[in-house]
Amino acid sequence: MNTKFEPKPEHKFTFGLWTVGNKGNDPFGDDVRKPQSPVDLVYLLAEVGAYGVNFHDNDLIPIDASPSAAETIKKDFKKALQDTGLVVPMATTNLFYDPIFRDGAFTSNNAHVRNFALQKTMRSMDLGVEMGAEVFVFWGGREGTETDAAKDPVESIKRMRAAMNFLCEYALDQGYKLKFALEAKPNEPRGDLYNATTGHMLGFIATLDHPEMVGVNPEVAHEHMAGLNFSHGVAQAIDAGKLFHIDLNDQDFGRYDQDFRFGAVNLKRAFFLVKLLEDHSYTGSRHFDAHAYRTEDDEGVKDFARGCMRTYLILKDKVDRFNNDPEIQKLLGELKRMDHELPEFKGPYSQEKMKAIKAHPFDRKAISEKGLRYELLDQLTNEVVLGVR
Ligand code: GLT
Ligand code: MN
Ligand code: MN
Q: What is the distance of C-alpha 283 from the center of its chain?
């Protein structure tokens, strides 16, 4: 194997305990792999070359663990981190598995459930911070409905806002340096989930008391499930200064929630995503939120994890090729040249500029006649991705 594509700490490749720990069960079939302890999974991740490990509270500490059992688990986990050098950049709360959350956590109709969700999240934040996490993800897997007869969606958004505001204050009160990253998904496991896309989340964040503490954690699969161009959503987050974390995986459009290995389905979309992250110098974790096919044993899980990182690095290399390809750059240079025309009209509004733009004689026909050469640009992109350039 080419060592050029070996993961290094600077790549910030991370995996959740739930990803490499996935036992291959699905709604139609039982587990196919044996459970592995958090400590086993830390060693597995170290073996494949990951930089960090993320977890839900209950990936690490079972929901019914006694305080003394929890202490032992934490001690063992910390030792594994120390032995391997792995870090915990992100933590999150499981607000979807236990039946108490069957009608939502922060948006449940039941005040007991909403407050239990706050309690569980505050404890989970304490745990995350104890392990070194600086980003705290919120994925509201049950925050939605099957029937809108049950909840007023405006009221649900207000409940969600109240919870986020409360938890921001909690973080500030504790002196935690945590950033929150909200993760959208359109559906599954609920019929419909609130704040269904990264764009919805960005709109919601602007309504919070501490918007500066809150960003997004977009996931490839989730935006594909909504039929969207993932890179465009991520670009919006980058532009807003809100890309605090990212969940990389793959997913065919119009399918069930697949969570495939990064690049497994659509290499070209993955290429443009890596290009976006690298061109804009994204510095956060590159978190693979995916799992191995149900056909795999423990070795296959390692193949899966190595594959995610290796594909990212190969695509990063392709991005360098694209950015340094003379023919491609010539085509892009022509686009830049067009962009830089009419310098006198650039910049903010003035009455003078307004009058000049209104009066300018644009040669509509001539401008429309010239081909843009996007066919060639796209073909050359394909050839980069296919490895012949
Ligand atoms: C769950 C979900 C993911 C979320 C995780 C964080 S849990 O696996 O499918 O997309 O990121 O809660
Ligand atoms: Mn995710
Ligand atoms: Mn997912």
A: 13
